[in-house]
Design a protein that fits this description.
Organism: Caenorhabditis briggsae
Number of helices: 11
Family: Belongs to the peptidase S16 family.
Low-confidence stretches: none
Number of domains: 2
Distance between the termini: 49 Å
Structural class: alpha/beta
CATH topology of the largest domain: Ribosomal Protein S5, domain 2
Shape: elongated
CATH architecture of the largest domain: 2-Layer Sandwich
Strand content: 15-25%
CATH class of the largest domain: Alpha Beta
Protein name: Lon proteolytic domain-containing protein
Keywords: ATP-binding, Hydrolase, Nucleotide-binding, Protease, Serine protease
GO molecular function: ATP binding; ATP-dependent peptidase activity; serine-type endopeptidase activity
Helix content: 25-40%
Largest sheet: 4 strands, mixed
Number of strands: 13
């Protein structure tokens, strides 16, 4: 059996599918016309961003169905209970016959139109399942925004690196490194590789800086309940370690992804489409990608590539030149 990878829908594609297929089908099933129920584009975008991040549209369909059900109930509750068809008296041609009561035409009931917007969306679908991917508006030294590819699509992946205690250059003990955040074996190996690469770069840039020799470092990847694995955070780990060692925050609104080799080469990774979606969602302006992923990026729709400053790098030194500028 051949397995074929199918990319998930973009937010813009999900909105189009909702307008062209999901909503028209539900109008037929519920008999709710556009004059009775309207769902604004902003509400659909809110649904997709904070409720339905899955690659497909099944979850989006279920949420729209919930909106239609609650709207139908509200419309039914608008009709007054005592507003029943009135009866009229009809007399037959035979004057001796008893009068016969017949129902008159039912009164006309026009329900108030329901408009779904971002303001009232929670009343129909509850609280959002996802909050903003952006944990930091301003990243401090040691914190870098990476990009990840998950079952839910793309997302921001922050790497936090801090000192467990102040550096003591007079201590006889060597430095250490601790990792948390539910990391898999491959990602733990990537941490060790990133540390070696970082030591080499620091020794080259600042030969007298012995930060890594005596430092006790803690690396954490937030959302510890979510397992994380893979090598694609390599360049993010190196950047986080160097930012901490130099005590300098990196350029804001920057994101990156790429595997790192022991000699500093930046190797290709998967999920470029999903990661670009995540970068746009969190408001990143500059994104560093492996040079070997250029073809994957070029295949993306033009509107996805707009408003992003994409930098392709084949070696970490090319990224380092722009890390603090």
């Amino acid at each position: 059996m051949e397995m074929i990878d199918v990319s998930g829908y973009l937010a813009e594609e999900k909105v189009a599918i909702a307008h062209q297929h999901l909503i028209p089908q539900l109008r037929k099933e519920t008999s709710l016309s556009a004059d009775q129920l309207n769902i604004e584009d902003s509400a659909l975008e809110e649904l997709i961003k904070h409720y339905c991040r899955e690659s497909g549209v099944r979850n989006l369909q279920q949420h729209i169905e919930r909106i239609f059900r609650k709207a139908a109930l509200q419309i039914a509750e608008q009709q007054p209970e005592d507003e029943q068809p009135a009866a009229t008296t009809a007399i037959s041609e035979n004057s001796d016959a008893e009068p016969v009561s017949t129902p008159s035409d039912p009164p006309t009931f026009t329900p108030e139109k329901i408009n779904i917007s971002t303001e009232n969306l929670q009343k129909f679908v509850g609280r959002p399942k996802f909050t903003s991917d952006r944990m930091y508006e301003v990243t401090p030294p040691g914190v870098i925004m990476g990009l990840a590819w998950t079952a839910m699509g793309g997302s921001a992946l922050y790497i936090e690196t801090v000192l467990k205690r102040p550096v003591d250059v007079t201590s006889d003990k060597d430095g250490s490194i601790e990792t948390t955040g539910n990391l898999g074996d491959v990602m733990k190996e990537s941490v060790r590789t990133a540390l070696t690469v970082s030591k080499g770069i620091l020794a080259r840039e600042q030969p007298d800086n012995k930060f890594f020799d005596k430092s006790h470092i803690h690396i954490h990847v937030p959302e510890g309940a979510t397992p994380k694995d893979g090598p694609s955070a390599g360049v993010t780990l190196v950047s986080s370690l160097l930012s901490l060692a130099l005590n300098r925050p990196v350029v804001q609104d920057m994101a990156m992804t790429g595997e790192i080799s022991l000699t500093g080469k930046v190797l290709p990774v998967g999920g470029i489409r999903e990661k670009i979606i995540a970068a746009r969602r969190v408001g990143a302006k500059r994104v560093f990608l492996p040079a070997e992923n250029r073809r994957d990026f070029d295949d993306l729709p033009e509107f996805m590539k707009s408003e992003l400053d994409i930098r392709f790098v084949s070696h970490y030194d090319e990224l380092y030149e722009h890390l603090f500028q």
